[in-house]
Design brief:
The structure holds 2 protein chains of 2 kinds.
Chain A lengths: L17 H6 L4 H9 L2 H10 L12 H6 L10 E6 L8 H6 L3 H14 L4 E6 L4 H16 L15 E6 L9 H9 L12 H4 L6 E5 H13 L1 H7 L8 E8 L5 E6 L4 H8 L9 E5 L19 H6 L8 E6 L4 H15 L5 H18 L7 H11 L7 H5 L1 H9 L1 H10 L27
Parallel strand pairs in A: 1-2, 1-4, 2-3, 5-8
Antiparallel strand pairs in A: 5-6, 7-8
Helix pairs in contact in A: 2-6, 2-10, 3-6, 6-10, 10-11, 14-15, 15-16, 16-18
Chain B lengths: L2 E4 L2 E4 L6 H7 L23 E5 L4 E4 L10 E3 L3 H15 L16 H9 L22 E3 L9 H9 L6 E3 L6 E3 L13 H5 L5 E3 L12 E6 L8 E7 L2 E7 L12 H5 L14 E2 L2 E2 L2 H14 L5 E4 L6 H13 L11 H13 L8 H5 L3 E5 L3 H4 L1 H12 L20 E5 L11 E3 L3 H13 L4 H5 L3 H9 L12 H11 L3 E6 L5 H18 L3 E5 L5 H7 L6 H9 L5 E5 L3 H4 L3 H9 L3 E6 L4 H5 L2 E4 L8 E4 L4 E5 L9 H4 L21 H13 L11 H11 L16 E2 L26 E7 L7 H4 L2 H6 L4 E5 H7 L6 E6 L2 E10 L6 E5 L14 E4 L3 E3 L1
Parallel strand pairs in B: 1-5, 15-21, 16-17, 16-19, 17-18, 19-20, 21-22, 22-23, 27-31, 28-30
Antiparallel strand pairs in B: 1-2, 3-4, 3-5, 6-9, 7-8, 10-11, 11-12, 13-14, 13-23, 24-25, 25-26, 27-32, 28-31, 29-30, 29-33
The chains are: A alpha/beta, B alpha/beta.
Chain lengths: 442, 847
């Protein structure tokens, strides 16, 4: 493991100040760019660096920026997505609390690259402390001349505001986030038009994950080749903030060269599983990825290798499950989250997820029937025909549960109880069937 | 134009056509819940899934997929069918299955598609979600448990009509459609929620539990509650009108109608509606009354008999009245209450031609709307919706943006020049000026956007008109909006002028047409749209070119020249501005013969009365304000509702062949009988007894009807406008310079219409009566301050005909120097004596 890049200024007790950030080379990239490079060059530099979107989809960042047409209208907008609500994921929180100016500089550079006038930091309300930090540091950056009119004496002007999310998972979806900032219901928008043509307020808009933009100052300061050389896997680029939680001894967030082995993350960095626990499976990148079966314990944690075996890197947030954890219960827990957080726009998401949750609940509580399994399989498949990627993501744990851990599910059905909980204990956080719980409104 | 193949059938469609629309044209109806032609495609329900090959592949939503060359679509693909079945199962998970007690049952899209989609056996073992329903007012019943979350109501209410009090709350499976709290819906288009809801979340409250769709007698009909002529489907049961729905007419109302039109029908089934002939106050047999009327009229000097028709009467009735007078050598009938209104309508009608008149649909395509002397929501509500669609830049503007604000749309600019506090569900520039100033300001605005060279090509008259427009208007008091509006008109390519006929002066109507001609010359295209007072005002104007009115009849009575008056479907007490004078004049008559279907004030005073059949009982034609002739079929054989005559028996038992209360006949038929009765002593004169006969005469009489055969009016109606208007543009003779500014010792009273409470027919409706606001006068805050009034005070106005007491509303967004008074059924505004009425300040007192 090389020295950290994104987290180079991470401290145990406080954020890095502007001075500390500048000492580590901060805002050098911005100064150079404003003096020497045009927007097109920045786009090309970022594209050449091989930077892929860190929000989970892994779309090449340079390409996204280039999608803003030269003659596109003004004003143009940059949105930095800090609405980190993916269960098990906390990398943005760590980064935002380590080096806020890195994010601010990344946002300004992205703004320059597409000639944008305004940036939004879209912050999850649970991260109120981050929002406060950003508000304070934005002022400091502006006072230092990095933001506002004629940045560092150039003719480029850019401002950034902090936008607090209303606090729903769906607001992290790019197009829903546009609606959210406009003050509308956060229902995803269909494409086309793409946000880069007509996004926020019908103007060209680039929306990037916070971690993605944090890479940009480094790329510009030290070059694309250097950035590529950071990665472990061939063809990949940069470092990545991985995190591990669940059944591990030292849960945490670790910056590692792109493509470490899963076993390495769990054993070297997260301290392995606690004594008495045996590795069973993990969700490799947050709650909307598939359970990764044991045979892939040594997989390289990068976009391509996981895709090759039908899985997703997602956010790189590994949630580890041991042999004592009931995966039906885990899937039910996650499904409960997705049921609650669906925006309610399209039928598969709004109605099928509660249906699936109900069947899972029954299986977990000894009311399962054999025919539920094909029902679940068909419904999971059908959620892929929904409006946005929410429902397909939401059913990934369930689908992979049925695919890889069908025996465990059948055991629940045949024993008419959850085999992981002693019969004397109430196994469930939910004493009533889902239909009776909390779904009366108005 | 892309060619696609759907289920083996090839079809070529316009660019941008969605697969679901293309399939519809082939007769393949793909299931849909969220998709609606007027509300666009949003891909929410996912039930229109089809399998695609070619440029897009796999299961796709047919409402979201645009037709592209080489696209091959299968609606019967196994995976697509299975997915659609699955979607319906999901939607039915929480549906209460209360079809037996749901009014939507029998014409429910969800019911139809559940059966058609093949979902039959319930597999979801969980409990159903429940919601609390809301009270939404007297028109719409809310039953949220039935909701399948198609978002149509939200998209309609906030997106299409622009009202905000009903919307979408919460998220996920708890998504709720309703108001923030209980309360009547604020939109005057709320009844359309009933039509667009694909299931029974919103049902029609007035007709609740009155029957299934198949129990009703149903027929295509027309709305008579303003001049736009919206198309409806009317339903009757047990000889009672129970329900009115919107009927698609792509040129007029589209898919929707307003609440006045939807719920104004109940005058037809009022218990107090006169259904028997009367002599004096006593009921009489038909023949007796006919005999008496014939005898009396035969004895009266034909020169002293006058006839009054109306603008709410059908073309047949209006025409027959005219023929009747001709035949008996009486004076021509009058159709208007006042001379000024008759002349204004004449002007408007004579200026409309095929080149310049636009329909409501064409207004939706305008990029600049200049509305003068018109208050759309109050005078012709559906006009406001058409204007809103223009403002949105076409109805299909992204439905995900229900509340477009100006920077987000490329829609039309709307400018209103009107003294009233006009309120519209869209952004507009309002120039509140007194009626006399409307015209110069409109002319000035248009002049600023048309160059003199262009006008010169239109001839010397046009140039004279153009040069006479003063440059100094508008007064500098207009704030920023003016320059912006002028700029927008300059840039516009499709401007439309909408002109009211109620509060404006005659010359304003002429100028509106002249200005439209100027704009047309400058831009190649321009539209003109007049709003008129009544459903058949246009027809009345065609039949009465003289411009005479009830006013001259009353003078005749007072001078003893007129001794008998025949009134056909008119209640002059409703609109004639001097009630007392009218009452006294009628008292002097030897004979007052009234034919009507309303329990009106004049019907009560009639010496002889014949009940006529309203629209719903007979086949009729009406001409709307753009000169479109439209046709309504009888809904049922009229008669007293069974609830009235059944004496509480269930089922009602009656014996005999005749329909109780079935005496009323169409007015034109009664007139034919009357003509025979009058002329019997002198040898029989017959009027045509058949509608075909009548129409043959009508076509001869009025060339505009030529080419219109009796029964072949096409479904979208038929414009009877000439190719070129009768009256040439820019008539200098009729224009008078009336630039008189208001002086400060009096206020001019402007009687106006309100959405509810002023229109005659709907004011008899027990549903409309429940939603009308109590009458109040409106004045500018400055005038109110001068008079010492605050908002919500009560005023007493000392008029020549006695004091008028009314509540006061003070407004900032209206002209000062005027008082706005609704012609409300609860307000004796007829004490004004004449219009315009000027009230000195000292006559207005605070109570």
């Amino acid at each position: 493991m090389g020295s950290p890049v994104l987290l180079q200024n991470r401290k145990t007790d406080r954020i890095a100040t502007l001075d500390e950030y500048r000492k580590s080379g901060g805002y050098e990239a911005l100064a150079t760019v404003l003096k020497k490079h045009g927007p097109k060059e920045i786009q090309q530099m970022v594209q050449d660096s091989g930077l892929l979107g860190r929000g989970g989809a892994g779309f090449p960042t340079g390409l996204k920026w280039k999608a803003v047409a030269d003659n596109a209208p003004f004003p143009r907008y940059i949105i930095t997505n800090i609405d980190e609500m993916e269960p098990g994921t906390f990398k943005d929180r760590i980064l935002a609390h380590s080096d806020p100016h890195l994010i601010i500089e990344g946002t300004i550079l992205a703004g320059y690259a597409v000639s944008a006038q305004k940036g939004f930091l879209f912050v999850r309300p649970a991260y109120e402390s981050s929002a406060l930090i950003f508000e304070r540091e934005l002022k400091i950056a502006a006072e230092a001349g990095f933001l506002g009119k004629n940045i560092l004496g150039s003719d480029y002007s850019f401002e950034i505001v902090v936008h607090r999310s209303g606090g729903r998972y769906i607001c992290g979806e790019g197009t829903a986030q546009l609606n959210a900032i406009e003050g509308r219901r956060p229902n995803p928008r269909g494409a086309p038009p793409y946000a880069t043509d007509r996004g926020l307020f019908q103007r060209p808009t680039v929306l990037n994950n916070m971690e993605t933009l944090a890479c940009v100052p480094h790329i510009i300061r030290r070059g694309g080749e250097w950035f590529k050389s950071l990665a472990k896997t061939k063809g990949a680029a940069g470092t990545k903030l991985y995190s591990a939680c669940g059944k591990v001894s030292r849960p945490g967030c670790f910056e590692l060269p792109m493509g470490p082995r899963l076993s390495e993350i769990i054993e070297e960095h997260a301290g392995g599983l606690p004594p008495g626990s045996e590795y069973k499976t993990c969700l490799p990148g947050g709650a909307s990825t598939r359970f990764l079966p044991k045979e892939f314990y040594n997989i390289e944690m990068d976009y391509a290798p996981l895709k090759a075996i039908g899985h997703r890197l997602g956010t790189g947030a590994v949630i580890v499950f041991d042999h004592k954890t009931c995966l039906v219960g885990a899937a039910l827990n996650l499904m409960d989250f997705f049921v609650r957080e669906s925006c309610g726009w399209c039928t598969p998401c709004r109605e099928a997820l509660p249906f699936i949750r109900d069947l899972l609940w029954r299986i977990e509580h000894g009311e399962g029937r054999e025919e539920f399994i094909p029902m679940l399989q068909v419904m999971c498949k059908h959620t892929w025909k929904s409006f946005c990627a929410f429902a397909p993501g939401a059913t990934m744990p369930v689908e992979s549960l049925l695919t890889y851990f069908g025996d465990e599910v059948r055991e629940h059905i045949s024993q008419k109880r959850c085999p992981f909980s002693p019969p004397s204990l109430s196994p469930s956080p939910y004493p009533l069937p889902p239909g009776e719980r909390g779904n009366k409104m108005k | 134009m892309p060619k696609i193949k759907i289920d083996g059938h090839e079809i070529e469609v316009a660019h941008g056509t969605k697969v679901i629309e293309a399939a519809e044209r082939l007769g393949i109806i793909i299931p849909r819940f969220c998709y609606h032609p007027a509300l666009g495609a949003v891909g929410a329900c996912r039930v229109c899934a089809v399998k695609c090959e070619g440029p897009v592949k796999g299961i796709q939503m047919s409402c979201m997929t645009e037709a592209r060359d080489g696209l091959v679509v299968s609606t019967t693909d196994e995976e697509a069918v299975d997915f659609r079945r699955q979607v319906i199962e999901w939607l039915m998970m929480n549906h209460p299955h209360d079809c037996p007690v749901c009014d939507e049952g029998g014409h429910c899209l969800l019911q139809t598609l559940t059966v058609a989609g093949g979902h039959g056996i319930r597999r979801y073992p969980g409990n159903k979600r429940t919601y609390r329903d809301q009270y939404l007012g007297v028109f719409v019943q809310h039953e949220m448990n039935r909701c399948i979350h198609c978002y149509r109501c939200w998209r309609f209410y906030q997106g299409f009509t622009g009202y905000r009090d009903l919307g979408c709350l919460q998220i996920a499976y708890r998504t709720y459609f309703g108001r923030f709290g209980d309360g009547p819906l604020e939109s005057p288009f709320s009844g359309n929620l009933v039509d667009i809801c694909p299931t029974g979340v919103y049902t029609d409250k007035p007709s609740r539990f009155t029957g299934r769709r198949w129990d009703f007698e149903r027929s295509p009909s027309l709305c008579l509650h303003c001049s736009l002529g919206c198309n409806t489907v009317s339903s009757a049961r047990y000889r009672e009108m129970v329900r009115q729905e919107a009927r698609l007419n792509k040129s007029v109302n589209g898919f929707f109608i307003c609440d006045r039109g939807r719920y104004g029908f109940s005058y037809e089934s009022l218990p107090e509606r006169p259904r028997r002939a009367r002599i004096g106050r006593e009921q009489a047999s038909w023949d007796e009354a006919l005999q008496k009327a014939g005898d009396t009229l035969a004895r009266i000097d034909p020169a002293s008999i006058a006839c009054l028709g109306s603008a709410r009467s059908s073309l047949e009735n209006q025409g027959m009245l005219k023929r009747f007078c001709r035949l008996l050598r009486w004076e021509e009938p009058r159709y208007f209450e006042t001379r000024s209104m008759a002349r204004k309508i004449q002007r408007a009608v004579s200026r409309l031609d095929k080149q310049i008149a636009v329909s409501l649909r064409e207004i939706e395509g305008a990029d600049f709307i200049l509305a003068v002397g018109v208050d759309p929501i109050n005078e012709a509500p559906m006009l406001a919706l058409a204007m809103r669609q223009a403002f949105r830049g076409g109805a299909e503007v992204a439905p995900m943006f229900p509340l477009p604000m100006r920077p987000f749309t490329n829609g039309a600019t709307v400018a209103i020049i009107d003294p009233r506090p006009v309120s519209l569900p869209l952004e507009f520039d309002h120039f509140p000026v007194v009626p006399g100033e409307i015209e110069p300001i409109m002319n000035r605005l248009v002049k600023g956007c048309v160059s003199r060279d262009i006008v010169a090509k239109l001839g010397p008259d046009a140039l004279r008109f153009y040069d006479a427009i003063p440059q100094d208007y508008p007064p500098s008091s207009f704030k920023g909006g003016w320059a912006d509006v002028e700029q927008k008109l300059l840039q516009s390519k499709k401007p439309v002028i909408i002109c009211g006929t109620d509060i404006v002066q005659e010359s304003t109507i002429i100028s509106a047409a002249d200005d439209a001609l100027l704009l047309k010359a400058a831009k190649g295209w321009a539209g003109l749209f007049y709003v008129m007072p009544s459903a058949n005002t246009f027809g009345a104007a065609l039949l009465s070119p003289s411009g005479d009115s009830l006013g001259e009849i009353i003078e005749g009575i007072e001078k003893g020249r007129v001794r008998a008056l025949i009134v056909v479907e008119n209640d002059p007490f409703w609109l004639y501005p001097d009630g007392e004078r009218l009452e006294q004049a009628l008292g002097k008559l030897d004979l007052l013969l009234v034919l009507d279907y309303l329990p009106s004030r004049i019907a009560e005073q009639a010496h002889i009365f014949f009940p006529t059949a309203p629209l719903f009982d007979t086949e009729t034609r009406f001409v709307n304000q753009e000169g479109r002739i439209q046709w309504a079929k009888p809904v049922h054989a009229g008669g007293s509702p069974i609830t009235e005559v059944g004496a509480g028996n269930h089922p009602p038992r009656m014996y005999g062949g005749a329909i109780p209360g079935g005496e009323p006949k169409p007015a034109w038929r009664i007139l034919a009988e009357l003509a025979e009765a009058i002329s019997a002593p002198r040898g029989k004169v017959s009027l045509p007894a058949s509608i075909e006969d009548l129409w043959r005469w009508m076509v001869q009489e009025q060339p505009a009807f030529a080419g219109l055969q009796a029964f072949d009016v096409p479904p979208e109606g038929f414009r009877i406008l000439p190719d070129h208007s009768k009256e040439q543009g820019f008539p200098s003779s009729s224009r008078k310079e009336d630039r008189e500014r208001m002086n400060s010792d009096f206020l001019e009273v402007l009687p106006v219409d309100w959405t509810f409470g002023t229109e005659e027919l709907s004011s008899y409706s027990r549903f409309i009566q429940q939603v009308e606001n109590p009458p109040s006068l409106m004045m500018h805050t400055r005038d109110a301050a001068t008079l010492g009034f605050k908002d919500q005070d009560r005023a007493s106005i000392n008029l020549d005909r006695g004091p008028l007491e009314v509540g006061v509303r003070t407004m900032d967004n209206m002209a000062s120097g005027i008082i706005i008074l609704p012609r409300h059924r609860q307000l004796a505004w007829q004490k004004l004596k004449k219009i315009p009425a000027r009230i000195p300040f000292e006559r207005i007192r605070k109570m």
